[in-house]
């Protein structure tokens, strides 16, 4: 399996240029300020839901007031805002936007939103639960097959189907139970949550008949929270070394999550401290050349940061972030699925 390459969205936007202009002028990134379009108010923050105004604009006609903002336009606005923020954070850390991979977490997204996101050229999608991952992947595969069968079709957002059919890379970012391993590895490109040597051994056992190894990240519980999964920081290198001896697994890097307060909020100071410690651990393991081969660097992914803290994570060294509500909105419909 070839190494991961950071996603470069095929959207027609230069997010690095937007970020540079923002930094130079002090202007606000597109998509993060409130605006009114024919009676609809666009979210003023990436995770703020779109709301409809009950009052018509001055000098507007009843027909204009009745026209709602398209859902795809709201998604486009949030997506562009997130990608511009990623580019700005990358610039602050001395990197390019193309150095950062954005995994769009579809846990609470509707299939219409997923379809629109794929039409933007976005290819990396993430799910928390195996059962929902299976359902999502099947629906996405069906949609992509239809596009390929009708290459000249025009999508609802006006883009050509042939030009908007990416190869989807699925990420499992939630806890992986050992009895779900066999189903998960048939779909995912990267498992972010290997939180024990026992789970790594189970994946190895289930991959005996595969021609390609499975790429995994070792989840590290940097904050030491009891509610968090992951290996202790002191054990991370040992787990990576053990995975390195397994024929059917490849340790590609580390993953961590910021600690949460009792009310579920994130303390930015504690989040940054957690990200900095995980980045140090990542660099230590990489410097030891564990997980590397003669063919080149393989231990090269640091997955940190979600919707509320991905900018701080990037500034601390993350090259992969997991973003859900900032793209899809807090109140997007959820696909119901049985418990794992």
Structure description:
This protein has a domain of 233 residues: Alpha-Beta Barrel (TIM Barrel), CATH 3.20.20.10. The chain has 340 residues and is of the alpha/beta class. It is globular and about 50 Å long. The strands form two sheets. Strands 10-9-8-7-6-5-4-11 form an eight-stranded parallel sheet. The chain is built from eleven helices and eleven strands. Helix content is 36%, strand content 14%. Helix 1 crosses helix 3 and helix 3 crosses helix 4.
Summarize the structure.
The chain has helices at 15-25, 62-66, 71-92, 111-119, 130-149, 181-184, 197-206, 233-243, 268-287, 310-315, 325-328, and strands at 36-37, 40-41, 51-52, 101-105, 124-127, 169-172, 190-194, 214-219, 249-256, 301-304, 320-323. By secondary structure, it is of the alpha/beta class. Strand 9 (249-256), helix 9 and strand 10 (301-304) form a beta-alpha-beta unit.
**Large-scale geometry:** globular
**Residue fraction in strands:** 5-15%
- State the separation between the terminal residues, measured CA to CA: 28 Å
* Separate helix tally: 11
What's the architecture of the domain at 96-328 in CATH terms? Alpha-Beta Barrel
Helix/strand order, N-terminal first: HEEEHHEHEHEHEHEHEHEHEH
Which fold name fills CATH's third level, the topology of the domain at 96-328?
Answer: TIM Barrel
Mean pLDDT: 78
Helix content: 25-40%
Going across the biggest sheet, name each strand in turn.
Answer: 10-9-8-7-6-5-4-11
Describe the largest sheet: 8 strands, parallel
- Which homologous superfamily in CATH is the superfamily of the domain at 96-328? Alanine racemase
Give the C-alpha Rg. 21 Å
CATH class annotation of the domain at 96-328: Alpha Beta
**Parts with pLDDT < 50 across at least 5 consecutive residues:** 6-13, 18-58, 60-68, 332-340
Number of strands: 11
Structural class: alpha/beta
